Each structure stands twice: as C-alpha cells, then as structure tokens.
Amino acid sequence: MKRSNEPIFWSLFGAGGMLAALIGPALVFITGIAVPFGLILAPDTMSYANMLAFAHNWVGKLAMFAVVALFLWHAVHRIAILLHDFGVHAVAAVKVFCYGSAFLGTVIAGYALLALGS
Amino acid sequence: MSNRRPYVRSMDGWWKRDAYFMRYMAREVTAVFVAAYAVILLFGLVRLAQGEAAFNGWLQYLKTPWMLVFHVIVLATFVYHTWSWFNIMPKTMPIMFVGGKRVQPGTITGTGIAAAVVACLAVLLIVKGLHP
What we know:
The complex is a heterodimer of chains A (118) and B (132). Chain A is 77% helix and 0% strand. Chain A has 118 residues and is mainly alpha-helical. Chain A has a domain at 9-20 and 46-115: Up-down Bundle (3 helical TM bundles of succinate and fumarate reductases). The longest helix of chain A has 29 residues, at 6-34. In chain A, 38% of the residues are buried. Chain B has helices at residues 19-50, 52-62, 65-92, 105-130; strands at 97-98, 101-102. Chain B starts with 18 loop residues before the first helix and ends with a helix. The radius of gyration of chain B is 22 Å and the shape is flat. In chain B, helix 1 packs antiparallel against helix 2 and helix 1 (19-50) packs across helix 3. The longest helix of chain B has 32 residues, at 19-50. Chain B has 132 residues and is mostly helical. Chains A and B meet through helix 1, helix 2, helix 3 and helix 4 of A and helix 1, helix 2, helix 3 and helix 4 of B.
C-alpha cells in the first residue's frame, strides 16, 4: 500500500492553525492597524532599522519564517478542500497548485531572511 | 450505452442548506484571509531584504485607507478563526483524561480561547516593551 502524505500536510495545517489562533489577531492588529495608524504602539515600531535588527536576530528570523510559512501551509490546506466543496474536483491539480504555492512562499521567505544576513 | 438521463440533484449551494454547513463554510473561508495576510507579510519580508527605500514603500502602502479596511476585515476573520479553531478542538484532538475523567469539550474550548487571549496580550506587551 502506498503511504499517504496526508500526515505531513495535516501537521503543517495544524501547526499554522494553532499559531494563527493563538497570536494571529494580535499580529494583524499590530502590523495592519496599530503601527500604520499610530494606535497604542509607536509609529516607528516597524521602521526599517527596527525590522532589520529584528531580522538579524535569530529569534526574530525564526518567528517571521514560522508565521509566514505556517500561515501559508495552514491556509492552502483549507483552500484545497474549499475548492473541492465548490465543485473543483481536479484533485491532483488543486493539490499541486495549493501546496506548490505554499512551498514557493516558504522558499521566498527563507531566501529573503537568509539574504538579510545576521 | 444507455439513453436514460436519471435525475441527479444539484450540489450547487449545498452549504446554504443548513446552519451547520454555514458555520463549516464560515470557518473554512477564514483560510482565504489567513493566506492574504501571509502574502502581505511575505511582501514585507521581500521588501525588507531589498533595502530601506523598498521597505518604506511597503510601510506607506499599509497606511492607505484600503489597506486599513482590509486589515479590519482580516482582524475580524482572525478572531473568528481563533474562536472556531478552539470550538472544534474537542473533535480534532485525541480524547484527554485527567484523573480518570474525560476532559469536557467546553473545558478544552475555554482553555484554548483563554490561552489565545493571554498569548495575544503577551505579543502586544512584548512589542510595546521593545519599542515604547
């Protein structure tokens, strides 16, 4: 019997879903509302210098990589099933498109973080 | 082979038939907003790697009214994601026993949501503490 690859994708889906459930609302509020519009947090919180310093720190690097990559893997797993729910039954094509997108995003995030150096 | 054309009930809009399916759909559709938010952050990361001018352009883009409206919608879907994620957790995690008694679904959901509130406040306080 061919081994299923489902556990891998489900683990990534679960990890991303848990991360999004725990800190997602705070992240969206910080990056999308509080910092751009100067609410509660200082407007220079996400300045180039601050974000560069954050990206040079290995904890910061790991945090940014985890958020971007896991959010993507979480989302594409659900989107693949949603497409089926809405009548797109080309299972293989949907999987290649969805998981391929998440893989591409993960590679780009990793490359950008490595390019930023330490 | 056969010229019979049996009636096949259409599946169009199946999820609108039942409140349970509607909740399922609402929960699953949050993924589209999670993906969109991840892509915005990914752009920010790429812009950061490209240098100060590129990154400042991304920061300016976040200040446009459309992005504010978009992020308010994303925030609402994330809050719904948090609620629905822990709401289905009693079904998605293995059955847990404490002291020989099965942990009740309400306890699992409540603990999860409380953990999320604490985690969100912690993230806000850490960011505020780093850049007062």
